[in-house]
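Posting this for the archive.
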Amino acid sequence: MILGYAEGLKTRDDTETRQAGETISHQTLRIRSLVNDLNLASKLEYEMQPLCLESIDVMECLRQVISDTLNNGLPEQYTIDFVYSDGCGGCLVKGDDRLFERALVNLIQNSIRHNPDGCDILVKLEKRGEKLELLISDNGIGAGPEKLKQIRNATHYIQNEQENAVQNHGLGLFIVKKVVGVMAEKITFESQKNKYFSVKMVLPVLLTAQEKDANLPREE
């Protein structure tokens, strides 16, 4: 209902009313995203979220998430660089496709939310033997030692101690840890205050898309 009224305000002739509509719409979308994250975090924490495990093409999933982020209007103070090594294309891993995509979105949005003045986001995918190494990092404000320790050790999402903050590292990264935990061999968090924040995960490769297609029975 709020979004509907906001869209109506955005079409008014009065500049001040249009700007108010834009603000209401933007903040309502943030609230909706936060509520969805809270619901998902609670379900994951108490193992109430059913997982649909299937083969995921990591490269295609990354391309889709990055494309959607750019197409949704990434502010000019942010950049996203996607680099990958030979052999990554078509590599499949086991996981919940929808939740894995949500985890990737959370990691990119985490960099955006915590760096209001902008940053450069790097998404890097490498194939090392039978494993994929996925790194998502930024050169923004980072996190101090205490916050990094909280993120690494938290068994539930971290409450925000700042009253005026909309969201913190804890909620989005808690979802990432829970989702990726069922499919990654290892996930690590590294950061240095005012320099960088990075998340790295090691994903065992099931097989390539070509190998999967080769194993399908032929149609008569």
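The helical segments are 2-10, 15-45, 58-71, 97-113, 145-153, 169-181, 209-214. Strands lie at 53-57, 78-84, 91-96, 119-128, 131-138, 186-192, 196-204, 207-208.
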